[in-house]
Amino acid sequence: MSETARGIARQWVLERWPVGLPSPDDFRLEETKIAEPAAGEVLVRNTYLSVDPYMRGLLRPGPSYVSSLRVGEPLEGGAVGVVEQSRNDALPEGTHVLSSRGFRDRFVDDGSGLLRFDPGSLSPSLWLGVLGMPGRTAWVGLFEIGEPREGETVYVSAAAGAVGATVCQIARLRGLQVVGSAGSPEKLAWLSSVARVERVFNYREHDDLAAELARQCPDGIDVYFDNVGGDHLEAALANMNRFGRIVACGMISRYNDVEPEPGPRNLMLIVGRRLRMQGFIVSDHGDVAERFEAEMKRWIANDEIRWRETVMEGLERAPDALIGLFGGRNTGKMLVRLSDS
């Protein structure tokens, strides 16, 4: 790489607050100068960028569990990369690192914002998927929040997404009855034939989602892993068993609402059926990281966990990937692979 190229990074910045579904005009790709690493610093070249539903919370003013960006600021997100130049003995050149410095191709860091990892024979992209935040979200949400017991029925919405597909598989591996919903025949085929989910259905084909859930779950639902909210939550509530647990992981159907939608009309069922509904943020559960990674790596080694990645090529496609995520155009993990990775 030339010295000129080394001193320039490209990054996406927020051009304006999106209204409703984000559009390409809400973002701007710019070049910025980056200095040579000082003592203790490293220059990282990103290879894969993560695109996740929580990012919508970065793109609006007001309170959220993630800090909102200001107009003109660079976008943030998960990324894996390689140390390209180092003045930090703990992070020699060639080291693989995980960071929150996505939506850019290069950056300089003092090492405090980097997590070193050894991918071995696996793709580094898995540290943004089943071995990263989405995988840990699935593991924490199901086992720590949902507290399922062997033989119970688990219903998973957005079952073909990065989190949902993992929930379905680890639930099956723990002896649970699994039902998943997704929005296309192609997604259902992948869930059935590759991820080995026993019962799946296309929610777009049913006007009465509660009735279809009653058919899919004749013995009721013990744990609902909610990635969607809205009518999926209302339908699940109608079919929950007494003392059931609702794991509120995400509500992607509501993230782009311009005006708030009314809540589930049957929310009072929580009282009569003694239901527990709990939201969670995976970053609050760092204590499970070693247990999660050990179990997930064992499942991967035994070919018991399958995954799929929807990959867009080049930094220029990053906004398309984000917009596509909210339009359901991904199966599995949505990623951007940088052209020089």
Q: What features would you describe in this structure?
A:
The chain is α/β, with parallel strands linked by helices and 341 residues long. The protein folds into two domains: 3-129 and 308-337, Medium-chain alcohol dehydrogenases, catalytic domain (Quinone Oxidoreductase, Chain A, domain 1, Alpha-Beta Complex); 133-283, 3-Layer(aba) Sandwich (Rossmann fold). Helices cover 24% and strands 25% of the residues. It contains nine helices and 15 strands. The strands form three sheets. Strands 3, 4, 5, 6, 7, 14 and 15 form a seven-stranded mixed β-sheet that branches. The chain has a six-stranded parallel β-sheet with strand order 10-9-8-11-12-13, sandwiched between helices. A two-stranded antiparallel ribbon has the order 1-2. Helix 2 (133-146) crosses helix 3 and helix 5 packs across helix 6 (230-238). It is globular and about 60 Å long. The two termini are 13 Å apart.
